[in-house]
Design a protein that fits this description.
binds uridine-diphosphate-2(N-acetylglucosaminyl) butyric acid, 25% strand, alpha/beta, four-stranded mixed β-sheet, 24 strands, 418 residues
């Protein structure tokens, strides 16, 4: 298993380019199943989760060609409308094929995801919304089977809690349903809006994506389209924190500053100097230790849970005590035990981490537990004194494109050990 060897203490300096959004690319690829015509997607990040989704589309029967970040999917025939356990267990977002398959073929069989390192992650809300759209659902042997051989019917759906992939899944099911579906308490994440833009290019009639009420007027069929995925806001946020934590001077390019406003405002309060560098770029400078500033994770436009771990690494060297509250996932503090091995002083009380800032952290051997936790450990290691070894970096490879390469190019002492 690959490891990262990192020698801390080097301030990062230079430009860090942002890739396409993994969490936008995943539903966009699933959306290609909705038409028999080819769909071409640009700025698809070349990360493991995307490769897994491409393999899943191929398994289902689509032809997938991928070259330099452009992926062409031709889903003319779908022989096997199914997401098997072997795929779903490695990537929960595989359940995103449930809605498109039920909508297009009237049949879908998707393995239920088990728990994962960050929480239970059920798909009950996806399933119950599909039932409201008229699908007959059976759950047995660890699989959800949806049948709607006469097609889906529009419904009024209210999500009991906000779910990102749930909103995406149901939006994709509803585009081919008869009548107008309304989703209330929908997720407002930029990735949901990006998916709606792609679907509308394919001939769907969706209004309100990006707000909490989405209306989807069903159409007979969708056609091929071409679309460029939005920049990855979580990668952009991770890079800003990398610049600040190493007391560097970094310009994050090709990002959408609006998508990470909740982070940049907090970083500004904590003492980082963040300026708009024009042309979708943000420059961050921070010569001092930050001031402790509390955060609470929330759905968009709140502070992203996917940036909580990375922000905590920065707060580990803050002046004062910060309270970090996680409201989205029940178990997303696995990184704290590893940060503690590097000298961080963190106490967990239920859904809150109380972080007492230390003068410095020291390099250590640590284990990555999930994608964003790995990023937090890399940030901590780049600031810590001495050498760190981060094990299980395959988590990192699931969602960050050429991460160590990009960081090394701006001065990080990071090396992949095979
Ligand atoms: N939930 C349910 N039932 C459901 C669906 C969700 O109870 O049917 C609960 C979840 O257990 C969780 C909360 O609702 O407590 C929110 O989960 P959500 O469904 O919004 O998460 P997700 O769609 O599975 C996406 C991202 C995650 C990101 C979350 C929250 C993708 C592919 N994944 O997951 O990204 O953390 O939204 O913003 O878009 C990551 O990239 O590292 C990552 C984990």
């Amino acid at each position: 298993m690959d490891k990262f060897k990192i020698v801390g203490g080097a301030p990062l300096s230079g430009e860090l380019p942002v890739s396409g959004s993994k969490n936008s690319a995943l539903p966009a690829l699933a959306a290609c199943l909705l038409t028999e015509e080819p769909v071409v997607l640009h700025r698809i990040p070349q990360v493991k989760d995307i490769a897994t989704m491409q393999d899943l589309l191929t398994y289902i029967g689509a032809k997938v060609d991928s070259q330099d970040g452009t992926v062409r999917v031709d889903a003319e025939t779908l022989d096997r409308p199914e997401a098997p356990y072997e795929v779903v267990k490695t990537m929960r977002a595989s359940s995103l094929v449930l809605g498109p398959l039920a909508g297009r073929t009237g049949r879908a069989r998707v393995s239920m995801p088990g728990g994962c390192a960050i929480g239970a992650r059920p798909i009950n809300l996806h399933v119950s919304a599909l039932e409201q759209l008229g699908a007959h659902i059976e759950q047995s042997h660890g699989y959800v089977e949806a049948q709607a051989l006469q097609g889906l019917e529009a419904a009024n759906i209210h999500f009991d809690r906000i779910t990102v992939t749930g909103t995406e899944d149901v939006m994709m099911a509803a585009v081919l349903a008869r009548g107008t579906t309304v989703i209330r308490n929908a997720a407002r994440e930029p990735e949901v809006k990006d998916l709606a833009e792609l679907l509308n290019k394919m001939g769907a009639k969706i209004q309100g994506a990006g707000t909490s009420i989405i209306a989807i007027e069903g159409v007979e069929r969708l056609h091929g389209a071409e679309h460029t995925i939005i920049p990855d806001r979580i990668e952009a946020g991770t890079f800003l924190l990398a610049g600040a934590i190493t007391k560097g001077d970094v310009t994050v390019t090709g990002c959408n500053p609006e998508h990470i406003a909740a982070l940049t405002i907090k970083m500004g309060q904590a003492g980082a100097d963040i300026e708009d560098a024009g042309c979708c770029a943000l420059r961050v400078r921070c010569r001092r230790r930050p001031k402790a500033i509390d955060i609470t994770t929330e759905e968009y436009p709140g502070f992203a849970t996917d940036l909580q771990a990375q922000y905590m690494s920065w707060m580990a060297i803050a002046h004062g005590i910060s309270f970090i509250t996680e409201t989205i996932f029940e178990n997303r503090f696995m990184h704290t035990q590893e940060l503690a091995r590097m000298g961080a002083n963190i106490r967990i009380e239920g859904r809150q981490a109380i972080v007492a800032g230390e003068d410095r952290l020291t390099g250590a051997q640590v284990l990555a537990s999930d994608l964003r936790a790995s990023a937090s450990l890399v940030l901590a290691a780049m600031m810590a004194e001495g050498e760190s070894l981060i094990d299980r970096v395959y988590h990192m490879d699931r969602g960050y494109e050429r991460f160590e390469e990009k960081l090394a190019a701006v001065g990080a002492h990071i090396e992949r050990l095979k």
